[in-house]
C-alpha cells in the first residue's frame, strides 16, 4: 500500500510541477490560529513548505500541527513571541525560510518588521514598508486620501496633542477618539460631550500604548447610523492593480466586526463604482503591491468618506475569495515572488453572495466579554457552499494571551436570500461546547428582519441586540427537556470546561496525552 | 426517585416537556437532538449530575437538577447570602490590573466602576455588585490577577 501511495503522490507532484512553479521553496508563517492555518493551506497548494511559529502555550496548537515544520519563538506573552521581531527572524534563519507571511494582527502592519525581514535577505509578503509606514499612521493616511481627492471623515488632520482643544470642540459631538497606530477597534473611544474627553483620551492612550506601543491619538466626528463598507485591493510589483469589489462590515461590537458580506447589500452600481474608483485612487497615490483594504463610511444620505487603509490581509478576506474566485493569500505569495497578476484576476467577475460570521470566545449576553476555558464539543457546519476557517478544535484550552477569534464560518450562494438561508442552516449544524461564543448572537441575527432585508448599519448591535433577548419559556422548557433526556439515558457527558471559574488544566492534560492514557486503560 | 427531581433553568423552576423525543448525536460530547412533530432542535448537553449547561442555538443555559433534600439545603443557603455587611469583590476573569478607580473609604453605588482589568487585549471594568463603602483595595495597577483573586472589600457605609 505504501508503494502505491508514494507512486501516486509522485505522479501528482509531476502533474503539479507542470502547471505551477512554487513561488518560494519555504515560507515562515509569522502568526497563529486560523489565519496561520489559512496561509499554510495556501502554501501547501502552491507547493511551498510552510514553517509555523509558536509560543510556549501554543506548542500543541492546531496551526503547529498543520505546518511542515515549526519553530518555538518564546513565552506566551505576545510581546515576547508573536510580536518579537528578533524571535521571528531567528526562527526564519533556523528554518531557512525564503519569505515571511505576517497574516493579520501582530506584526502584519509593522513597517519595522517588514524592513527587518528584507534586511535579513528574506521577502516580506505584504506591501512596500514605506507604504505600510505611511498608511499605517491613520493620520498620514487621512492626509494622503485628502490629497488624492478622496473625502475623509470630518476631524483632525494632526495628533490631538498638536491640536487646540477648541479645534476638537468645533467638530461637534459625538466624537470618536482614535489611535493613529490603531486597528481592530483598539484605542477607540466614543465621546458624547467635552466633559468626557479627558477620560476618553487617557483610556484610549493606555489601550493604544499597550496594543501598539504608540499612544498618538486623533479625533474625528462620529457618523451616526453609518455603514462600514470596504474595498479589497490586490496589486503586483509591475503596476497591475485588481479592485476586487467591496464588503459590508456594519455588524460590529466595540468597533470590531462580527459579520461581513460581499457584495454590500443594496449598495447600487453608482456608489459601488465610486468606492472602487476612490480605492484605486488611494492605492495609486502610494507605491503599492500585495493585498490591502480601503475602508469607507457610508452615511444615510449615501455620502461616503475614507476611514483608513489596512496594508495587510483582512480577517474577512474569505468572502471576497468566495465571490471572485481569487485566492488572495496565494496571490499575495505569488506577487511577492514577482509574478504579474493575470487578466483572470485583474478582471475577475463577481458571482453570487457570500456572508461570514466570526465565532469568538465571547459571551454576547454578557456584553461580548471574552470567555476563557476549554473548548468541549467542536462540530463545524459543512456541506454545499460552506467554508470554515478555524484555528481551534475540541478539547483545546483557550490561551488568554491572544485574540479570542475561534473560527470564521462562511457561506456562498447564488444570491443574498439563499446565502442567509444557507447561513441559518450552517449555524444550526454548528455546535460548540465548553465556552460561550458569539454563535448565539449570529443565530439571533439571521432571524432579524433588518438583517434579512439587508438594511442595517453599525447601530445594529447597540440598538437591536442591546444585551440580547431574555430566555423565553419555550427555550427554558427545551433546556430542561434536554437535561431530562440526557439523565434518562443514564449517561453523563463529559463535564463542561472550567470556563465558569477559569481553572486551568495542567499541560500534561493534552488531547494526545489523554488519548495515550485511554489507550493504556483499554489495553 | 427521578419524579421528585426539580429542574431549575437559570434559577427558575421549569418542567420538562414529555412530548419531545431525545436522541444522542454524539454521546461523548453531549450533542443531541430533540424531535417532535415536524420540529427538530439541536442541543448540546454538558455537565451533570446536578449542574448542567445546555447550549441551544448557541446560547448557553444553566440547568440545575435537584431532589427534595438538595432543594431544602439550597433554599436555606440562599437565606444566608448577605445583602448587607462585609462583601468581597473577586476577579471574574484573569488579566492585568491597569487602573484602580476607588480608595478605602469611598462610597460606591451598585454598578460603579471599581477597577479596570486588561484581558484578551481589551479593557474590562470590574463594577460594584452592590452599594457599600470600600474597606480595602487588595490589588494595584500593574498586577496580574487570576480568576477568583480578591480585589476589593466592601462594607455597609458608616452612618
Which bin fits the share of residues in helices of chain A?
25-40%
Principal-axes geometry of chain A comes out as: globular
Number of helical segments with 4 or more residues of chain A: 19
Low-confidence blocks of residues of chain A: 1-5, 497-523
Which value, in Å, is the CA radius of gyration of chain A? 24 Å
Proportion of beta-strand residues of chain B: over 45%
Secondary-structure element order of chain B, as H and E? EEEEEEEHEEEEEEEE
- Determine the strand fraction of chain A and express it as a percent band: 15-25%
Order the strands across the largest sheet of chain B as they lie in space.
2-1-7-6-5-4-3
Number of E-state strands of chain A: 20
Largest interface (CB < 8 Å): A-B, 63 and 59 residues
Number of E-type strands of chain B: 15
Q: What's the quaternary structure here?
A: heterodimer
- Percent of residues in helices of chain B comes to under 10%
Care to describe what's here?
The complex is a heterodimer of chains A (523) and B (159). Chain A is built from 19 helices and 20 strands. Chain A has helices at residues 2-19, 33-46, 62-66, 85-95, 111-119, 129-136, 138-147, 165-170, 197-212, 269-284, 317-324, 328-336, 343-346, 416-429, 439-445, 449-452, 460-465, 473-488, 511-522; strands at 26-29, 49-54, 69-72, 99-101, 123-124, 175-179, 189-191, 217-221, 227-235, 241-253, 256-262, 290-298, 304-310, 353-360, 362-363, 369-370, 378-379, 386-390, 405-413, 431-432. Chain B has 1 helix and 15 strands. Chain B has one helix spanning 68-80, and strands at residues 6-9, 12-13, 21-26, 31-36, 39-47, 51-56, 59-66, 87-90, 95-100, 107-108, 113-119, 122-127, 132-137, 144-145, 150-155. In chain B, a hairpin with a 4-residue loop joins β3 and β4 (31-36). Classes of the chains: A alpha+beta (523), B mainly beta (159). Chains A and B meet through α9, β16, α14, β20 and α15 of A and β3, β4, β5, β6 and β7 of B.
